[in-house]
Design brief:
By secondary structure, the chain is α+β, with helices and mostly antiparallel strands. The protein has helices at about 15-45, 145-150, 155-175, 175-180, and strands at about 5, 50-55, 70-75, 85, 95-105, 110-120, 130, 135-140, 185-190. One of its GO terms (cellular component) is membrane. Its EC number is 3.4.21.89.
Length: about 190
């Protein structure tokens, strides 16, 4: 009759401990990014929040080229002088984001306002006033974030980001040596 001996491997404390700590940090970062992304998705879907990317320097120095800002919907009646708003630009697919320098009522339409806008770095107001019933008001801006967002939206960056996330997911889910070390192996005794 053969006797079976259990062989239990011991854990390598230093290396496996560092790996576990790195996995926890990676998981924490992924959780925070995922949570913020989910929160942004809900706010943009339910509250109408948007991100404005500044492609020109017309709003410098407040919002220089490459800045990004968060904007929220606002009724025209609530727009005031000195607000920074995004409104549709007649004859263009792209909107304009400039500072309000004058607000006037529109006769016959209680909800509409005529806005005169000017970029902070421009010496004159925009050529034509904008008549709006609502707009997006900028509430906070972040320098350089627009550059990052534009870069990450490129196909090569999306592919690289997808690969990094996939590899990190596999690495976090792959069993570490400590998880497999306690699996008993049976060896016939002599």
């Amino acid at each position: 009759m053969e006797l079976l001996v259990r062989v239990v491997m011991t854990r390598g404390a230093s290396r496996s401990g560092q790996t576990g700590q790195a996995r926890r940090r990676c998981l924490t970062v992924a959780s925070v990014v995922g949570g913020l992304s989910a929160l942004w998705f809900v706010c943009s879907l339910t509250l109408g929040w948007t991100i404005v990317l500044f492609a020109t320097g017309s709003m410098a120095p407040t919002y220089p080229t490459g800045a990004a800002a968060i904007s929220v919907p606002v009724a025209a009646a609530d727009i005031a002088v000195d607000d920074v708003v995004t409104v549709p630009k007649p004859g263009s697919d792209l909107p304009v984001t400039h500072r309000v320098v004058e607000v006037t009522d529109v006769p016959g339409d209680a909800e509409a306002r005529q806005l005169v806008l000017r970029g902070d770095d421009n010496t004159t107001a925009d050529r034509e006033p904008y008549v709006v019933r609502d707009a997006q008001r900028v509430v906070i801006g972040f320098p350089l974030v627009g550059y990052v967002m534009t870069t990450l939206a490129q196909p090569a960056a999306l592919l690289a980001t997808t690969l990094v996330v996939a590899l990190a997911t596999v690495w976090m889910l792959w069993p570490s040596p400590d998880e497999t070390a306690d699996v008993p192996a049976t060896v016939p005794a002599r």
